[in-house]
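Hypothesis: this fold can be encoded by more than one sequence.
Test: take the structure tokens below, design a sequence, compare later.
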């Protein structure tokens, strides 16, 4: 089986930053920056929210966690080599309007994002990058190589896919290095007929702007369902947080900032209103929230939790209209002159851990491409029942998840 493997990696960790408070002027600047855009770059529109709903419908009442940024940038990079309807489906699935210049804007936006996120900054680390591993025996289109290098700042590395074990070790070592050892042995079944591996990774390392005290964490009830309760370590801190009560969607939104420009949004639906919130949350709603969030004193209870998600995106993305790339109708002739190539598999894995100091997370997406013969007053807010979580950094949704069972 000949395959083209696409990997996307996301890591979020709380360690290594010096705890400090921002002045109110800096906090206002942070909120202004968040207001500039709340959707994933390079995608636009409601890609993250549509993908979430598709994942949630396939696994009701389960924990969900994924990286919209990782998946969308992978698809955007793949679109560089797609042609005809295959390209159209990818771009439309990402939420791009079919207007002149939209595709160019997509790739230029990706380039700008890569440049911005890799700038040194105080308070936390955030880096984003790409790599392309190619077999020297396989001819890759010059235009595709040039675009990947220029627009996506990708490393291009030769790999001998005739030695699957050696190529697998080379790529896994690269992935482990870029994610500081958090993602290891991601590729497990390379074959001698594989032709290319594309990697996207992001590394994020931060702490809460104001950490929770370990001494305030106590075992409390978490209501998984009205009938099922589990005991969880519940963090607690009374402090100024960003807060919003959305009466239309029947939910409370609490913004807990990290050091730097990143913020975690925790969304607590009213009893029985989870589905209403899930269906109503979109780019427009998130923009409204970010505009209306105000600081107020909260007695916040938030569980320590660790959840993970694993998804076969080749079974999910057709629900968003991205289907041809996984079938015999795929046209990826912009990548290589090899004919009869399609993506037979695309896998995404993500893990998140939230504790008193901050958040740790890692995610990986793998897409396999091969021949068609192949596959205001202090208010208590207690997150003691299923809730949603978004981690937003400036214009990008880094993570999106639902905590049903911590």
């Amino acid at each position: 089986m000949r395959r083209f493997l696409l990997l996307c990696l996301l890591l979020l960790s709380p360690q290594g930053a010096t705890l400090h408070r921002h002045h109110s002027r800096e906090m206002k600047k942070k909120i202004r920056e968040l207001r500039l855009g709340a959707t994933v770059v390079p995608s636009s529109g409601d890609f993250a929210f549509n993908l979430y709903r598709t994942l949630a419908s396939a696994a009701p009442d389960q924990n969900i966690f994924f990286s919209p940024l990782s998946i969308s940038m992978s698809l955007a990079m793949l679109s560089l080599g797609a042609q005809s309807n295959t390209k159209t489906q990818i771009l439309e699935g990402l939420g791009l309007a079919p207007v002149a210049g939209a595709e160019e804007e997509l790739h230029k936006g990706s380039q700008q994002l890569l440049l911005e996120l890799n700038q040194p900054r105080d308070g936390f680390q955030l880096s984003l990058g790409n790599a392309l591993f190619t077999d020297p025996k396989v001819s890759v289109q010059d235009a595709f190589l040039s675009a990947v290098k220029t627009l996506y700042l990708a490393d291009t590395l030769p790999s001998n896919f005739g030695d699957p074990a050696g190529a697998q070790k080379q790529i896994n070592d690269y992935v482990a290095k870029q994610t500081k050892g958090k993602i290891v042995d991601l590729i497990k079944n390379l074959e001698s007929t594989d032709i290319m591996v594309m990697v996207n990774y992001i590394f994020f390392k931060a702490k809460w702007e104001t950490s929770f005290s370990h001494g305030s964490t106590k075992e409390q009830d978490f209501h998984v369902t009205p009938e099922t309760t589990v005991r969880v370590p519940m963090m607690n801190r009374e402090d100024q947080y960003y807060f919003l009560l959305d009466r239309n969607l029947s939910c409370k939104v609490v913004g807990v900032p990290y050091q730097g420009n990143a913020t975690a949004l925790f969304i607590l639906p009213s009893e029985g209103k989870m589905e209403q919130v899930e269906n109503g949350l979109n780019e427009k709603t998130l923009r409204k929230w970010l505009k209306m969030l105000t600081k107020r004193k909260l007695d916040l209870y938030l569980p320590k939790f660790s959840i993970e998600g694993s998804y076969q995106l080749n079974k999910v993305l057709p629900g968003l209209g991205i289907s041809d790339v996984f079938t015999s109708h795929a046209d990826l002739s912009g990548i290589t002159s090899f004919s009869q190539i399609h993506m037979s598999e695309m896998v995404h894995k993500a893990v998140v851990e939230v504790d008193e100091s901050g958040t740790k997370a890692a995610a990986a997406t793998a897409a396999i491409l091969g021949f068609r013969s192949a596959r205001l007053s202090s208010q208590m807010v207690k997150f003691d029942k299923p809730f949603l979580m978004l981690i937003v950094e400036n214009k990008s949704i880094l993570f999106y998840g639902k905590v049903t069972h911590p």
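Residues 102-117 form the longest helix (16 residues). Confidence is low (pLDDT under 50) at residues 10-44, 368-376.
Hypothesis status: open.
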